[in-house]
Amino acid sequence: MTDRSITVGIMKVDVSGDDTAALNRLTTRATERLTTALRREARLNVRSFTFNGPNLTPGDHGYRALDFIQIGINEKTERQLAFLLLVTEVEIAAASFSYLLALPSQLTNVAIISTRRLADYGSDEYEDEDLLADRLGTLMLQCFGRLLNLDYRAGDPQNYLSSIRVPADLDAMDRFTDAQFTTIVANLPAEANDRFSDNNRASFVLRQIASNLPRIFRGAFRANPIRIATKLPTMIATALSVIIVLIFGGETWDFAASVANDQLTVFVVASFAMASFVLYRAFSFRLVATRHGNTSESSVVTAAATYLALLFTLAVLFVAFAVLMYGVVVFVFPDTLMRTWTSAKDGSTVEAHVRLVLFLAAVGILSGSLGGSADSRSVVRNVLFAADET
């Protein structure tokens, strides 16, 4: 356990500018509730401030949570915060629900919270500032718990990690269990990620990757590579188009029958490296350093987990393409054709089939990555960084 202070930032983002004073009062009172609930942990230091950057422009379906997360990453890095809860008064578009109350991104340690739906607009509850402040404070505590990997609790409506169906469910939530608080205390040092590089950035990056491998793998698996693959229809279509053309070419069978195993291995590895780089550049967040050029530990962890998740996604697609093509080779092409089509070696052997499908799968992920970069950035980013909508 570390004795160093761990700073939780509370950032007010007044997008519309209609009632900045009301948002300030609401956030200040909610922050007091958060601070009171967490006072048992002496290492935590809560810091509140206002974002003074440019206003956001809504998209076709409203304000996008991922835009707020990008702002949160930038501010968290520049202000050297361990966690950041971003509070805004505008409604945020949700992928899974009709509206969004909050969106904690465990990979980035940033949570987005909207006050717009804490009560029905125009109702008596909407005018009750005490009620809204209590609900906002409770929502902050739930998001903070999620950033520290606490699981939701079913059947315990008084717990801060109880599921929220309607905003009124927040009224009953008033506690963490002793076991949950023990988990918070235990997870804080590993999840804080508030170290910053000094001079040798390359050495810092390598050290942080090595020391955060469990968290990086957890973040990559939490993103669910299979789910990411289903969000890349353009990539899959591009890959299959190229593979289908190649599998009906005699030169492809000649190459697969004759290529050495080490040459094929190099080609497969190079295809993974190139494809993962292309997808990372297309879908990752812009992870910035501070104005002094310092790189944060959380940025390193986020980048590494993102790259690993995309690498796992490519592995899923590689296996899927290989299995599909092996089925085509076995059930579509007659043995007589496979034996005579190739000019150098017999293309009907199992070894030749395996080399062929590995080559085609590698070509598939390589060519597919170029098409996959055109898929929806917001959809893929949402799966990677912000799947936990409330």
Automatic annotation (TrEMBL):
The UniProt record lists the keyword Transmembrane? yes
Q: Know the name of this protein? A: Uncharacterized protein
For this UniProt record, the keywords arranged alphabetically read as follows: Membrane, Transmembrane, Transmembrane helix
Ranges annotated as spanning the membrane: 228-249, 264-283, 304-333, 353-372
Lineage of producing organism: Bacteria, Pseudomonadati, Bacteroidota, Saprospiria, Saprospirales
What highest taxon heads this organism's lineage?
Bacteria
